[in-house]
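Provenance

Sequences were taken from public entries as deposited. Structures were produced by running a predictor on each sequence independently, with no templates supplied. The record for FAD/NAD(P)-binding domain-containing protein from Periconia digitata is shown for reference.
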Amino acid sequence: MSTETIVILGASFAGLGAAHYALRHVLPQLPKKDGVTYDVTLVNPSKDLFWRLAMPRVAASTKLLPLDKCFIPIEPAFAYAKGRFNFVQGTATSIDAEGRKVTVQTATEEKTISFISLVIATGVSTPSPLFTLTSDRAALEAELDTFHKALGKATSVVIGGAGPVGVETAGEIAEFLNGKPGFLASAPKNPKVKVTLICAESKMLPVLRESISKKAEKLLKNLGATVRYDTKVVSASTPSEGAKTAVQLSNGETLETDIYIDATGTRPNTSFVPGAWLDTRGKVSCNPKTLRVEAAGVPRIYVAGDAGSYTRGGAMDLQIALPVAMTNLKTDLIAHVSGKPPGPDRHYAADPKESQVVPIGTSKGVGAFGGNQLPSLMVWGIKGRDYMLGMLAQPTLNGDAYKKEGKWKPQPVVNNGVGLSSS
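Predicted structure for FAD/NAD(P)-binding domain-containing protein:
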């Protein structure tokens, strides 16, 4: 008896969803083959789902949101798939496409895992260690402890980057240190800490319209935070321990600050991926409709989530994309096992409607969904209350969004020599 394995790299939104989808909708539909069984192996550096969404509030203070709540064990969510599911705590270090193997470094050994199909769902990291699990929980706790001690003494904070993480962090820190504004109050007259947000463009929050960005700026101002537009952070350096950090700006100005937080976007977690598979941003290049990694030159390799070239990122977009990648995986795999012609492709098409939710402090925020602007109270109800921990964490772990395959319109099969090969 031999076992063929669908390997999924990464266990955040994309990887967890892919694993549940494969167990519920792929394995049960594979043709029976004498002497062969199929299973799913999920590889992730942490044994827990790390709820990175909540880190802007945790960064302000663990009194607002304890770090413990941001770590939720993964394996119990797969108890229903005993015998068909394996979890490997480790980090992928290389892919051998021709040999159909992934090398994974665990705490105790380097191991090789063979795959019949591969899904790359390793996501992205942030430049600041405050928002990313760079190694393990203990390291993040130590980083936060050091940061919070410095924050307690700070009179100035500069944040580079005005996307959601930068804006949320500015709001959380400004409110925690300067307090909430009073009824109908404007900016505090004597804020304890000067919080400055550096925005490289002419407006914050690129996904959202200008008027919503302006509303966000007003809410930040009411908490004692200011925004600098059309300016980039060129460098940040601290000459010695305890000294102020010099933040060099693109206009030639230098800001001296007690704390600098780098929130200038994200970096794909793709260092283990062959360079020929990556685009100029370091993302895994894929067919933008089928999400097959055609650059691999071999069949049945796919990408899902923020590590992929097809997406601008986000959990809402993932709910559109993941069923596409996994349906095409199933189609290709059935054809491979049966030797019959493949079924039709499922195609990805991004939803162009404006959708993003950004808390600013613990009770207000801005956002839009499906092209419609959301009132501040609704932003709080959706995300600002606890950064969706209560609403979304357990459903994400359980793969609730993928309990059913859902209906879709088949597309004509295009034999590109990669996705449909039987090799």
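The CA atoms of residues 23 and 40 lie 7 Å apart.
Residues 149-262 form a domain with the FAD/NAD(P)-binding domain fold (CATH 3.50.50.60).
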